[in-house]
Each structure stands twice: as C-alpha cells, then as structure tokens.
Amino acid sequence: MDTSRMPDQPDRALVQVTLPAHGPDGPLDGVALVTLNRPEVLNALDFALIEELTDALETLDRDPACRAIVITGAGDRAFAAGADIKELAAQTPTTLTVDDHFHRWEQIKRIRKPLIAAVRGFALGGGCELAMLCDMIVAGEDAQFAQPEIKLGVMPGAGGTQRLTRAIGKAKAMELVLTGRSMGAREAEAHGLVSKVVAAEATVPEALALAARIAAMPPVAVLAAKAAVNRAEELPLEAGLEFERRSFYLLFDTDDQREGMAAFTEKRPPNWKGR
Known about the structure:
Blueprint: E1 2-3, E2 15-18, E3 21-23, E4 26-28, E5 31-36, H1 47-62, E6 68-73, E7 78-80, H2 85-89, H3 93-99, H4 103-109, E8 115-119, E9 122-124, H5 126-133, E10 136-140, E11 144-146, H6 160-168, H7 170-179, E12 183-184, H8 185-190, E13 196-198, H9 203-215, H10 219-231, H11 237-250, H12 255-266
Parallel strand pairs: 5-6, 6-8, 7-9, 8-10, 9-11, 10-13
Antiparallel strand pairs: 1-2, 2-5, 3-4, 11-12
Helix pairs in contact: 1-4, 5-6, 6-7, 10-11
C-alpha cells in the first residue's frame, strides 16, 4: 500500500504514509514511512496535523503488514519546527482543557510498533518532543534539537521537561529548557538523546535500514522487548526486572520462540510467523 493520504483526509494531506517504504533495492517489507507534510511552515505541528498523525500511526499499529515505522519531515530544513504559534496564541486554559488536543501525544506514546524518528534540520519544541516520543532517533549532521518555549513566555507542554530530563539528565535538560538554546546532532549523541548521527542526506535511508533490520525480527518478541525497555524509565528496578522476566516467560508460548531456537540448532534462517 502506497498512500499519500489516509481515508477521509482533505486533498492536501498533512501526513503522508508509504507502506511498504522504499529502500535503494526496492520495497522494505514491514516498514512504513510517515512524513509530516507542511514544509512551507517547516512542518509546524498544528492540531490538525497531530490528529492526522495519531490516526495514521494507530492504523499502522493495527496493520500486521507493518512491523516498524519511520517518522520524518517533508523537505530538508526541518523535522518539525515546533507548534503552530498562531494557533496556540489564541488558546485559553479553558479551550486547552475542553478541546484537549494534547491527549493525542499520549496516544502516540501507546503505539506498540517501534517508532524511529529521522531528523534533519530543526526539531524544536513540539518537534523535539515528538522525536523523543519515538523509540530511536537517527539524526542528520544538520539536526538541531531545542525546547525554546521559554522564549515565548511559556514552557514545554507535551513532555519536554520530563522526557528530555530522562534522556540527558537533569543538569543539561535544565540548561536547555531554561535558556531555550539548541543542541546540535553531535552534542545530542554525546548526551544519549539520539541513537546515531549520519550525513544529512543519509538520514532517512539510514532510519529505513534500521527499521528494516527490526522488521526482520520476530514481531511478538519485538513488541515485548520494546514494552520492557520502556518500563525501565517508569518502574523501580525490582518491578522492572519482574516485568521483564514475566514477558520473557510468556514468549515461550509463541511459535516464533520454537522456530527461532529450532533454526539456531539446525543452522538455518528462521521463518517468523508473528505468533
């Protein structure tokens, strides 16, 4: 399936979905490419785009043909340069509470398939928060990460203070949040925010190659492993170890566990069934 827009969207899709995504040697089995499509405003995240994005991700999450997802921004200047400030400037505490558009960020967090952010150019404010919601970040050498909300008289509101602190530590996160300064790709890599830094033009291809390697793994084990790693941020060590062990035991009830161990002993490639 190769779609430029999801069902019931307007003619101009704010989010483009390609499944399977295309690599240098053809279609990448199990890999979806999701592109934020507002390049004229550096892919700024207005409420409509976030709604389309969450709908697209939830559709892919339910699709057994999709096993890993890459998110990127249209063009080469920005992954996403933050929220739509004109839209936000008109909000009040009442409209933000009643309309509750921000709940969609938690929907993205609940996506079970692995998410990889392919970041070129600016990932500012909500763009940085979206990248941090992903499980891995592949950054081009031109990538810039920042939470500049302080310069607008506010603060991060979609996870920036919490996820940035967990990713790079309190001292560095406090500096970035309170000054709004940006952090380049190499600095972000040194502090553990990104998985890999590559040449700018290689950003999406490298992210797709990473997604393809993950998509080739046993699907049920991938879901379980992602959930366990995410719990490490949220649970005390003993509770996390218990969650891990329980998940490990449950995988011994899957066809893929039996296939993987049989293939190992028989010295042949495994044939995963996803069950």
